[in-house]
Amino acid sequence: MKATPVVVPVELKTSSDSVSYAAGMTITNGLMSFLKQQHGIDSTNIGTFLASFEEVIKAGESPEAKARVAGVEIASQVRGRMLAGISGEFKDSPDSIEADLFYRGFIDAMKQDTTHFRQAAAESYFREKSEADKKAKEEKLYGPNRDAGIKFLKENAQKEGVITTPSGLQYKVLVKGEGQVPQLTDKVQVNYEGRLVDGTVFDASKKHGDKPAEFRADQVIKGWTEALTMMPVGSKWQLYIPQELAYGERNMGNIKPYSALVFDVELVGIVGDKTAEPAPAAKTAAKTAAKPAAKKTVRKTARKK
After folding, report:
1. Which of 68, 126, 137, 231 is the S-S candidate for 93 at Cβ 3.0 to 4.6 Å?
2. 168-202 burial, b if ≥16 CB within 10 A, otherwise e?
């Protein structure tokens, strides 16, 4: 029969005894909630938790005790974060992560067991497979976006008034301006609306205030930068931007990876330009109360990441 552990009564004889005991109790405030939320431990398992706690405390600073504690901590991290993270990366790809073999690979590496891989070879193989599976995953999920953009731009290039630049940017002049053409570092004022090739509007300057948005011509996506440094103030162009001149493989929420974009852009003015009379739109905007979100929104919509 297993003996019942003897609980030694606590005697608090001095002030230091009392403050030490009280300190120990104090640091447990919120611990039960933490154990339940982070580790799934409730009051029915507190005995096991305390037994492990006391075992570690009594073991002191010996190498064996440190190794035991480290093993528990690392196992928790590997299972809770690393396995979940790597498994997520391979989701929807040609391969998947098998937990048992993942743990076995970890253990064999620590034992320096090279039956299947040497360390460098394992790392190289994993890196190559990760990259290949990432491309396959992106092709599966977002290939249709890229293909739709290519088809749209190919057909659009044949339409009357559409000009294609060497970079692949397409534009159509809706209103021809007569003002100054911005330089790369000029801060410009624009009104804009952005759409996907299926016509879905994902952003517009009017959603964020009555005043034109302001930003530097070289702080936006490549398609915008190229167009802005060709547009005279007062112009209104429609831009058709290939994905490689937009956000490419980046996921921007409503703008999925490899999406070609369409923008209506009106270049209202150049901040600080005193060589020309502001365009009518700029005069109107100057008299209208502006909301501070305008500047912030354009950065979100069109700036480089």
Report:
1. 137
2. bbbbbeeeebebbbbeeebbbbbbbbbbbbeeeee
Secondary structure of residue 113 in the 3-state scheme = coil
194 vs 2: CA distance, rounded Å: 74
CB-count exposure of residue 213 (10 Å: 0-12, 13-18, 19+): buried
- How far apart are the C-alpha atoms of 40 and 33, rounded to whole Å? 10
Report the C-alpha gap between 125 and 191 in whole angstroms: 50
Instruction: Report the pLDDT value the prediction gives residue 231, as an integer from 0 to 100.
Output: 96
Cα(146)–Cα(255) distance, integer angstroms? 12
> What distance in Å separates the CA atoms of residue 82 and residue 110, rounded to the nearest whole number?
16
- The predicted model scores a pTM of 0.61
Between CA 273 and CA 106 the distance in angstroms is 63
CA distance 87 to 80: 11
User: H helices of 29-80, where?
Assistant: 31-39, 46-59, 63-77
Which three-class secondary structure state does DSSP give residue 124? helix
Compute mean pLDDT per 10 residues along the chain, 305 residues long, and list them. Answer: 68 92 91 88 88 82 84 89 93 93 95 94 96 92 94 97 97 96 95 96 92 94 97 97 95 93 96 58 38 39 50
